[in-house]
Amino acid sequence: MARKVKIPATKYPIERFTLDNGLRVVLSPDRSAPVVGVAVVYDVGIRSEPEGRTGFAHLFEHLMFQGSENLEKLAHFRHVQGAGGTFNGSTHLDYTDYFEVLPTGGLERALFLEADRMRGPRLTEENLRNQVDVVKEEIRVNVLNRPYGGFPWLKLPPVMFSTFPNEHDGYGSFADLESATVDDAQEFFQRYYACGNAVLSVAGDFDVAHATALVERHFGDVPSRPAPPRPDFDEPDLTGEKRDRYTDRLAPLPAVASGWRVPDPIGDFAAYLPYVVLAEVLTDGDASRLVERLVQRDRTVTSLGGYIGFMGDEYLVRNPTALLLQAHLPPGGDPEKVLRTIDEELDRLATGGLPAGELARTQARMATHLLRDTDPVLGRALPMAVLEQQRGRPDLLNDLPRLVGEVTAEQIVAAAATLQPSRRATVEVVPGAGQ
Amino acid sequence: MTKHSLPDLVPDSKIKLPRQAERTLASGLTVLAIRRTSVPLVELRLRVPFGRAPLPRATLLSQALFTGTGTMSSIDIAAELQTVGGGLSAGLDPDRLLITGNTLAGGLDRTLEILAAVLTDATYPAEEVATERDRLVDHIQVAQSQPAHLARVALLKRMYGRHPYAVQTPEPEQVKGVRPAQLRALHADRLRPDGAVLVLVGDVNPEKAIDAADKALGSWTGPSKDGNVPPTPELEPGPLLLVDRPGAVQSSLRMALPAVPRTHPDHAALQLANLLFGGYFSSRWVENIREDKGYTYGPHTSIEHFLAGSALVASAEVATEVTGPSLLETMYELGRIASLPPGEEELEQARRYALGTLRLGMSTQGGLAGLASMYASFGLRLDYLRDHSAALASATREQVAEVAARYLAPARAITVVLGDAEKVEGPLSALTALERDTE
Asked: Are residues B180 and B253 in the same domain?
């Protein structure tokens, strides 16, 4: 029984303006809960790191928490948490974000803290050495001391890409991290942390006029610096299949991941969006094509994921990027066979089409995920900031459930037809545990 | 003096609880419905008492619950849920089976119908169960290669001895022996509404949501077998337990300390003492071993509440070469908080954090659903947030010092380190008595 549900939408109000110093601001008020989310996004990420400085964008993110013009080391954390709030930051391929979520009464404090470090972090030798140590432990926790560390987000790009910005390890080598200097950090800040290269976004419980006044009070006198020119990181698509494998000495079972380039997420969003839906048609839940075939029927795979963007941020990534499929295999599993079956299923989709009910249910579930992601204030403040930065369209967040719902079966079929083995980059994990 | 200085905080308004309704159905199922209309969705949580259920069977049951009913295959179930934007999954803790889900608000009735079909008519088809069994075995094997899991296993065993909480993950060999008929029997015995709590949060009229649950789940009936877990034993401090993981580039440091349930008079003060020690970023432990020394990335402590007892657990992954110094600083910070009263400003900061994050936790449908469901499984309701806020607001420095001395004393800690024993045994044994794991 194919009851098609109506896909609902959100109507978060959005105010946009630009301060005289070039800082772009997005405000999205919502008085339904007494909390606010504040995000500042800088248009610099892993792809902008200079050669010989792998991991620097992330290391620099850590340095932005080490004190600033009016704040000692540790003060930032204490002031946010002492306001009843939480904070964090994260480094992506194309941007770096910093954010706080606080009870309503902490809004001005968060704006003060973000403005203070936008004027300039305290870049000292002692803080740098301390955070190099902390980052090395972060890499050990997430990559070196665990099975499947960095799989596939650090392991597939070098197979798929051939230019430094796209292929290098965004966590960085210990050698590069250890050779980083305070001068490097100063230069990186000067170049990339210009207010013309940033977006401030606030979502949640505030009055727009009041928040606007607060933003002007705290950010209005941040010295104006223009955004640096942003290089085009595009590179040609693969001309033939690329493969690599490595032994993970901690992994007990095999795994494999493949990626295919997809259209420019910003330049050609209409052509890109069907790939986002395709990834879900293939892998979202037990009724999806590849889970049904590989996990349930063939039992050649124990778990499967499909998504776009190496960091799973499909609406917040620029070209070039890829649709990824990753699979964990049972003992003795054969990655070759899994890849052949994926090809078979993609071919079946490309030639046999996609029934309306299958597409509609995938879109309905995607709508739930999209709506759910916007319920926390940060689920609005952060993506709105990045959407403003990359597209000048924070309101796209409201439109996504509808746009996803408008993708047609023909578009999905056409997208599936492009995922050919000759355009595929694959990396295999050879289990090395106990050997 | 610059023109920019730290702005004052605007005082918070009183905690406002959302509109809600509650009803216990004839079957013994309690339904709580809470209104938050921010997004057109409903969050669903169902907790069913599952204490003392045989672990390999219960774990596999939680993985295989949605593999089929008398009229639907696993794929039908998933597809039908997807059609209304819904999804359901199950998990297990030592006390409860927890079913978690969400749906477009318009799909609530259908999602409840499918949930009811699974609860009353799950068939555990042999083929599908075999698939889930193999997947679970592989999953456990992967978990057993992860340091955080291995450290947790060793810590639980050391904390709980012969108590049922001592083992929370089955061995692959045990799972391999579980048969579909055993899952059907366990389901019939234990997956019952009596004592279970269903929480629905979202864009709903609470009374109508309860009516919908009553209608859909009316046929889910029957008494449950008693699953009461005996109270946890007191933690027995002893020598540090060192578990070897040759070649590890980090050591997993774990410490367990006594704690009290949410309803205990010491709870609020202990929560504050925990924050001061290591329970948030601006704590003494994190500022010391991360921000000052750079030994670690994400050290943290938390109070874990189970039905039969509570404990405070501290966790840090530290570089192998600083394992000894990390233990030294940890013992120093525990000793300091157990021996000297906290500073006034330090305490106010932790208090504001505890009060503020309660509000953050209530600000989403998912957060409210998680809180309401968790509290309900301990017999509490959302109004506990008010009482707890009042207790946090009024806890004095003397009370916090007093509970810290009682619960955070390093002499009371159980300590487990998982790491490269050849490298860390010497430095650790310079600081404390130590025994090697003999398994």
From this structure: no
- Domain assignment of residue B121, given as a range: 20-217
For chain A, domains (ranges, CATH) are 15-219 (3.30.830.10), 242-431 (3.30.830.10)
Nearest to A91 by CA among A26, A53, A47, A126: A47
Q: For the residues B344-357, what does the mean pLDDT come to? A: 98
Amino acid at A269: F
In a domain, B223, yes or no: no
Q: Is the pLDDT assigned to residue A434 strictly greater than 90?
A: no
Set of chain B residues whose Cβ sits within 8 Å of the Cβ of A133: 293-295
CB-CB neighbors (< 8 A) of A361 in chain B: 79, 82-83
Q: How confident is the model at residue B439 (pLDDT cuts 50, 70, 90)?
A: low
Whether the CB of B85 is below 8 Å from some CB of chain A: the reply is yes
Residue B2, pLDDT above cutoff 80: no
- B254 and B378 share a domain? yes
* Chain B residues 369-428 within an 8 A CB cutoff of chain A: none
Q: Is B6 on the interface with A (CB under 8 A)?
A: yes
- Mark yes or no for CB contact B249/A144 under 8 Å: yes
**ipTM (interface pTM):** 0.96
Dump strand ranges (E) for B81-213.
87-92, 96-104, 197-202
According to DSSP, residue B5 is labeled: -
Chain A residues in contact with B7 (beta carbon < 8 A) = 108-109, 112
- Rounded to a whole number of angstroms, the distance between the first and last alpha carbons of chain A is 52
Number of domains in chain B: 2
pLDDT digits (tens, 9 = 90+) for B216-250: 999 999 988 888 899 999 999 999 999 999 999 99
Q: What angle do CA A131, A133, A139 make, to 5 degrees?
A: 100
Same domain membership, residue B61 and residue B174? yes
The residues facing B88 across adjacent strands are: B101
Q: How far is B227 from chain A (nearest CA, A)?
A: 32
For B:337-376, CB contacts with A below 8 A are 348-349, 352-353, 355-357, 359-360, 362-367
Check which CATH number belongs to the domain holding B73 and give it: 3.30.830.10
Q: How many alpha carbons fall within 13 Å on the CB side of residue B183?
A: 29
Which residues are paired to A257 by β-bridges? Answer: A326, A427
Q: Are residues B259 and B338 in the same domain?
A: yes
State the Cα–Cα distance between residues A359 and A229, nearest whole angstrom: 41
| pLDDT tens digits, one per residue of A116-160 | 999 999 999 999 999 999 999 999 999 999 999 999 999 999 999
pLDDT of B114-157, one tens digit each?
A: 999 999 999 999 999 999 999 999 999 999 999 999 999 999 99
C-alpha R_g of chain A: 23
| pLDDT tens per residue across span A30-70 | 999 999 999 999 999 999 999 999 999 999 999 999 999 99
B335 in the same domain as B370 = yes
Shared domain for B184 and B296, answered yes or no, is no
